[in-house]
Amino acid sequence: MRFLTILVAVLGALYFGYWFVGSTALERGANTWLDELRASGWEVRYDDLSTRGFPSRFDTTLTNPDFRNPVTGIGWQAPFFQVLALSYRPNRVIAVWPQTQDIILPGETLTLRSEGLRASAAVAAAAALPLDAVTLEVGAAELTSSQGWNISIAKGLLAFRDAGGAAGQYDAFGEVTEIALPQMLVQALDPAGLMPAQIGLLRLDAGISFDRPLDRFAGAAGGPSLTRIALREMRLTWGTVALNATADLVIDSTGTPEGEITLVAANWEQLITLATNAGLVDPAAAPGFTRAASAMANGSDRIDATIKLENGLMSWGPVPLGPAPRFR
């Protein structure tokens, strides 16, 4: 019995030592980052930096952070910011933001009010620390500008994770619901007031490949380069307008994509009008788009179209769309 008591006491002391060393290292790393931020010209203010959570957690809290760049006029302030981790799984961390925070821009302050804004990140237990997964999620959120505009969503999710195949292959997913755009933007896109006040859904699901894995060595030699985008789904629904897209694009060494994008559009006439109002379609070219879409739709309000990317150019059937986007 006495031996067991001594063993428990020794193990407890060892674990306390591990927790103390780990928490000290976390605070040292945070202070180093803050010092580097100051050295780069930022004004860094906060009330306290501390780590708690013994025995099972490392909960590092920065209280009342206020970061300002006097040269650019950019800044950020909040009541707190937290980074949380289980002490027995330090390779997985969670970042937590408060319900209200301010983003300072030149001549404008953006106030973000959100429910449950947090991000998590995990790296594999290997020497290179390869990225395993990153997730950002938020409930109802509203961004309000001091200049009088605001945008809000019901909830949002962004996720990026190792696809589990060859090195450098990842899955990306994003979804935002009930997007209320700034009124001035709605008036520009839909001056006739034909569309609902909110965009119902914006979703993206894709496979993304790089020429090297995302790990602690990824920044060497210019960083990783995209080699392929496999778009499984891109969906936008706004009232009676619905747009779905899939794609398979191979990206060469110059960053030029080649492949095809398949589009399925419902209420395509209104979609062309919105794209023209948004500046995505040249007003002079809009009649050509309408004629081509009408021919493809064959009297229907739905069209299935394929955009081809080849030799650095995009085309929709016989209609040239201009240069393809570059990814480098």
Summarize this structure as a short list of keywords or feature phrases.
15-stranded antiparallel β-sheet; 7-stranded antiparallel β-sheet
Please give a quick description of this structure.
The protein is α+β, with helices and mostly antiparallel strands and 328 residues long.
Explain what the structure shows:
The chain is α+β, with helices and mostly antiparallel strands and 328 residues long. 20% of the residues lie in helices and 48% in strands. It contains four helices and 22 strands. It has a 15-stranded antiparallel sheet with strand order 2-3-6-7-10-11-14-15-16-17-18-19-20-21-22. It is globular, with a radius of gyration of 25 Å. Mean pLDDT is 87; it is low at 7-16. The protein has helices at 2-39, 183-189, 268-277, 286-297; strands at residues 43-45, 48-52, 57-63, 66-69, 74-77, 80-86, 89-96, 100-105, 108-114, 118-123, 131-138, 141-145, 150-153, 155-162, 169-180, 198-210, 226-238, 241-251, 257-266, 302-310, 313-316, 319-323.
Continuous helix count: 4
Distance between the termini: 67 Å
Task: State the total count of DSSP E strands.
Answer: 22
* Helical content band: 10-25%
Widest sheet, order of strands: 2-3-6-7-10-11-14-15-16-17-18-19-20-21-22
Overall, the morphology is globular
Structural class: alpha+beta
